Write the structure tokens for this entry.
Amino acid sequence: MHRRHFLRSAAAAAGLMPLAARPALATLYQTAAKAAGDLEAIRGDGRAITLPASAIKDLAASLRGPVLLADSAGYDSARRVLNPAIDRRPALIVQPTGAADVSRAVHFAAAHGLLVAVKCGGHSFSGMSTCDKGMQIDLSGMRSVRVDARARRAYVEGGTLLGLVDHEAAAHGMVTPLGTVSHTGVGGLTTGGGFGRLARTYGLAVDNVVGVDVVTADGRVRHADAQEHADLYWGVRGGGGNFGVVTSFEFQLHPFAGTVTAGEVVFPIARAREVLRFYAEWSQRAPDALYVDFVMAQPPGGKDGVALLHVCYCGDHADRDLAPLRTLGTPTANTIKAQRYVDFQRSGDYSDVRTMGEYMKSGFTTGIDERLIAGIVDGFEGHAARSTAVFTQHAGGAIGRQPVGSCAFPHRHAQHALMAAVSWKVGDDGAPHMGWARKYWATIEPLTSGFYINEVNDESRAVLNANYRENFPRMVAVKSQYDPNNLFRLNANVQPA
């Protein structure tokens, strides 16, 4: 996605405290024991609960990774997510070093009925990877990738960021399709579906998952694939965090030259309607090797807005397949060139500290017609105190050739994911900006069909259920089997029967 055009966020701050900077394990085991008495927390149903200091001490002693309380070193960085408008304070944070730690943390949470949030990369707009007064399971200590080049497989720990997967796979002349920002968490991205620049060629991230290890709500570590716990394997691929904590992914890898023709063609925002019309037609007939997004963005102050096309081409005929771009005339900037895929994957990363609050609405389209073009362009408004943007993520191609029931992700009809987003300076009142975004989106939403659960915000229960489409009844059955008490509810939640 292209938030770099309008959001000032924090790649540098996105990485959590590195393992080398953490205190010795013996010290960490004692963190909870030094707590001043019992700990006030909340259950998943919202009721207050008191956690005895002795129970927290026992939990800490059973783990290799740390338990962080509010006065612990590293607590503030661990609880934060990329959206700085989210400012929540878990009662305790567990930072596992492996599946055994995750299992013990889940056992503890289930025994006390705690509210549980799971954090990988912290990209959730809605902030569901953190919580107030519950337990956050922070997977930042579980980041590794092992490539089996002969089998064309990558084995990826649950807290890994996608840039590491890209890097390790590229060293073997291979790739698996993952996201567009290198510090995105593989776990959150993949369990929601996993759009990316190569998805039209190789499918979504979920389409390339061969197997997973999952800690379910009973604390058991289960391996799931097409033969073993096949229902869990089906649900994890598109059901978000509903079914447990994925501690390991096995991805299919594809031979890949490593070079793409990629960049952006930029025009003044006054040409947005013309550029969007061109995009609507060109993107629909694009070959699978071509991924192209439309972006319309206005920075604070109402000047220097842009309409641009973001291109990533991984085929053999760049001159031919990108030639239609020339019909748009001379752009104000053109950065398209041959470059390493792993470099382009990092081109959307942020480098500034977290200074902007963020809010976004999203939906899928089956095409972009004149009604949608009018809604996007005519309703768009800049503002002196916010960044405003609307943008797409190209779907179709290999994504749409998978059967709807192949996994929990149901939106094989999508040709584009459409997103409208605003950002504002932290400390300012975000309500007017979020209000504008909701009003703007209300005119566009009737022209969309479903939405990406990784961008869930404030949707109602009925809307969430309907968004799983024909897969919803099976989702309920899998949820009821593996999480009958809805321990994992901070997600695009499916309630058990």
The domain at 145-256+470-482 is CATH 3.30.465.10 (Uridine Diphospho-n-acetylenolpyruvylglucosamine Reductase; domain 3).
